[in-house]
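Provenance and format

Records in this collection were gathered into a single text stream. Each protein contributes a sequence line and a token line. The two records reproduced below are adjacent in the stream.
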Amino acid sequence: MTPMIAQNVHGAIDAVWKFESARIIAGLTRMVRDVGLAEELAQDALVAALEQWPGQGVPDNPGAWLMTTAKRRAIDHIRRGERLERKHEEIAHALEQRSLEEGVDDDVLRLMFVSCHPVLPAEARAALTLRLLGGLTALEIARAFLVSERAVAQRIAKAKRTLAEERVPFELPPGPELAGRLASVLEVIYLIFNEGYSATSGDDLMRPSLCLEALRLGRLLAELAPRQAEVHGLVALMEIQASRSAARTGPSGEPVQLHEQNRGRWDQLLIRRGFAAMLRAREAGGPPGPYVLQAAIAVSHAQAKTAQETDWEQIAALYGALVRLVPSPVVQLNRAVALGMARGPQAGLDIVDTLTSDPALKNYHLLSGVRGDFLAKLGRHDEARTEFERAASLTHNAPERAFLLKRAATGTSRVAGVTLGQAAERFLAREDLDAETIRSYGQTLRRMCLDLGAGTPLAEVTAGKTSTVFAVAWNGAAAKTWNRHRAAVRSFSAWASIDDLSAGLARKPESRERRPSIGPPQLDALWECPNTAPREKTLWRLLHESAAAARTALSLNVEDLDLENRRGRVTTKNGPVRLSWRSGTARLLPHLVEGRTRGPLFLADRRPAPARMPGPADLCPDTGRGRLSYERAEYLFKQATRPLDPSGAGYTLHQLSHSRR
């Protein structure tokens, strides 16, 4: 097969997976009653497609092929289950006879309510449902929630384990319980629609399939809960927002702002559906909730025949009511836009300026985009350029980035003198700085350039502006982290021969307390734990006996082991690092290797999805699994040692590696 054909096949597989993954996982969850296991079986089916389709060709019905393959693997799993040993033949036969399309919509809806079960915290419910039903990556979910990617990945993994441990049934909840879970379900559908309406990353401004899926789920939910005003309010909001899709992009895929859109291209059928859903929300009665208020804002836009006829005062009043219900900084930002349109750009800018110090918005590109728009309207073009450039550096969506950079280049003058970005580059290029110092200083200066603008003249960077950057970026950081960034700014100021930019930053006292190493009684209990998996048992023994850093041990490859002499070698950026171990590790390592001759020693639990495929150095050629991450290894060790730790927090891998010392 030629590379071009193989590429086309892989593109087809990726497209089918994005569209079918939620239905496949839902159908599998119905069978195995375990969301985590269902996702793993679905991934196995995807890997089978990647292996077979390039040679055999894409089947006529690729979705059915994936579903059939996944169900067969699920049946095999059920047959292997000890608890179902007596009934596995009967169950497998029954499952094989079912139609692939049977109960798809109900299954997806059940999966949504299972993902939003009360045993899970609110943030975990939304993250898990977005992952399973929306197909969003952890990074995309992180941007939707304004949190880190690592936090989202941990939430999803923990949510799957909780559902399995609590044996949550795969069924729709009864009436009273359904109402209690509705808020989480609505939030999830809303976020799925938002990701489709304004994609956080990629080469396209929109992901229409996500919008359609959110609309489908919302309409299903409206049939299930016809007396819930908020359900109809969300459907109305999505219908009207979706009506603008054709007008939101220009000929080259560039964004078109709302006031510049050709309203003749708005889909009138979707608008009428939105109006009808809004009427049903009003008939349901009760005080308006967040989705009804947002739908009312969308209705105000849809009722205006031209942008000039938009009733911005009414929209600003609706946002004021929404802020009282949902006092989030993002809603405040939207209210600022409405007030700026109603009462002039300065009114909007005054509100936006109060939000720039909110840590939740420090990486939110729309904050800088809105501020740049107001500054441009006020004729403050150099400041506007800085904001547009910052917004462009924060967004991961290619059309949006190009649009913002174009706005940055419009109506601005050239900056004279050395800029902050130029000075930072020269400072980090010094030959007297070692690699670790460059990395540390680079983190500080990149944040300074991001928040203040790399094109800002160095002469305009002040201690006051630097203090604002620190307050937003590192106010909640540990004292040691704060002081490290402060020292970097002081060093940069001295090198540049300018006033000390850290003058307004007090040094924070650092605690000298260190968590103690793990004591012998706790270690003995750890080694004797009967439920420890071979991978963890080997890693923990290795860290204890070698006293190596956890990241170094996790970087070990099978080909770098000298089992006979009980030693290994890891190549790091600072050169090779040698490890040696004792008899405990020596007994365990051969069983962990199991005939493998190359690739990572410590492997992840499952094979990675195509969208998250690691590099060749971190992928096992024999099993297809990736290298075990430090974050996952740390989590498992903390969970295992919580009963042993008097504080109840669990020990860290760092404490384990230092316990022999």
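Adjacent record:
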Amino acid sequence: MTDHEKHIKELRSRAMRLPLNPGVYIMHDKTGKIIYIGKAKALKNRVSQYFGSEKNHDDKVRRMVANVDFFEYILTDSEFEALVLECSLIKQHTPKYNILLKDDKGYHYIKVTAGPWPRISEAKQIADDGANYIGPYVSSWATKQSVDEALKIFKLPTCTRKFPQDIGKARPCLNYYIKQCCAPCRGKISESEYNESVEEAIGFLRGGSAQCVRQLTRKMEEASEALEFERAARIRDRLAAIKRMGDRQKVVAARVPEQDVIALAQGAGTSCFEVFRFLNGRLCDRETFLMGETGNPKTARGEFIERYYSMRDRIPPRICLDGAAEGSELLGDWLSQKAGRKVVLSVPQKGEQAKLVEMCRNNAAEQVAQATGRTVHEASALDELGRLLGMEKPPLYIESYDISNLAGSGNVAGMIVFENGRPLKSAYRKFKMKTVIGQDDYASMHEVMERRIREYFDAQGKNISDGFGRLPDLILLDGGQGQVGAVKPVLEAAGLKVPLFGMVKDDKHRTRAIASDGGEIAIHSNRKAFTLVSSIQEEVHRFAIGYHRQTRKKATISSTLTSIEGVGTSRAKALLKHFKTIAAIKNADLEELCAAPGMTKPAAQNVYDYFHAQEEKS
């Protein structure tokens, strides 16, 4: 037993002596620094879990446990008190392995430059530059959205050109041609007309769209009465632009007047929580929190809600989540107490709310995709597949297996790996059956999995954590319930809890469904997951059948050589290894054949005569 294993055993022994009371536990490293703080309804049960079998932990928890030198605890009268104390201690100590959020909710402003041809933009702080600043506003997202809307509606420039210096010096940019800029650079708009547009844009930003619409409608009517039809038409176009902008915002509107929507996307070493905040039925703010690995999604959601609403004064009456959160009832009570009214946590399954959650999740997946170098389609497909199969988190590392033979001969298997939604060809493996004779796909799949699991445990003894030393997040077999039934006992006997499914084809050899030991799961309605599974099934079939053809070709070549007198199986293999191809053996002279490993002069002469005799006959 190593020193680390002895230490973990001592920590578990101490944890088993803890009381079954609610409280807070505090993990320290060798320097005494606090690295994790958690709460528990029963301290003994929760803390002892950390020091049990590593197979029950995700990577984040394993890393934390590996750094624990000692722990302490504080008893509380209730689990609710433990939650309040936990929040307070995490704020105070900011432990490394807790989810920590950086609160960048500073103030933001709308800046209107001074002088002729003023510009409107978003600013993070007030500068001493003579500009006029409108604000402050709390949400940077809402401020930027408002400025973008105003610039598009009133066709104000967003380029870096300076006016009047750059008027007439260059052609207008693309925004002019798509009717999003009045293009002062053309010299076709007067300074007074431009300033009027700026004033109207400021009015829009200060008073909102409803007040702006009333003012513009009045101006349009006055222009019409004064027979200023061009000006009236210009104002009409602005009113139409405001309406179009409002229609676009309805896409992200909700019937619930005030609520938050929270979704989690996980990638390889990177996770993202996305928060959409709705007020008066409209999306009023959006926040993105990119962080490292968050581990178990249920636990992560619970921790995130604690941290996030510890930083926020406004707590809505409804919070929609994309999945279950650990301790949701307790969190609901805590949030209700903070808000002074009832707060409901929900996981919507259908309707408008489910669509809002899906949109929020897609945005989180986009952030993860950009951070990890994946496409948003890959991130979304893995997330969709994980949810479809009832997995706690997306399967980032997938192994797939297929058997290939010809009427029972040349029985082989191929294993492919998809990591982060892409083929990882360096991890592909080939298997030639050792115990199965004849055509028996179930027995062959059983043998392959036994050998793969054996390799995994051998690698653990050598501290190898990649290749066969790494367990997949998901195993997909080319086949149905029969293949799943043949492999499942192997995983159970080894004590491994790896999700296992089959990939079922239709009569045209196209992916039709995913098989489990309890039946089939249709995947056609889940387009991204369907495309991913189809790609995996096609790739594993291609790899397995390619290996089968390769072994058959070698067997044919080997049989050609063994038909020569004096060349047995071993000598035929040695010749092929040395010369690589039959063509090279055929073109070799007698001296080169004699010099080959394992060859004798008589055998070399026989090989030479065999091929040259064939040449003479031809």
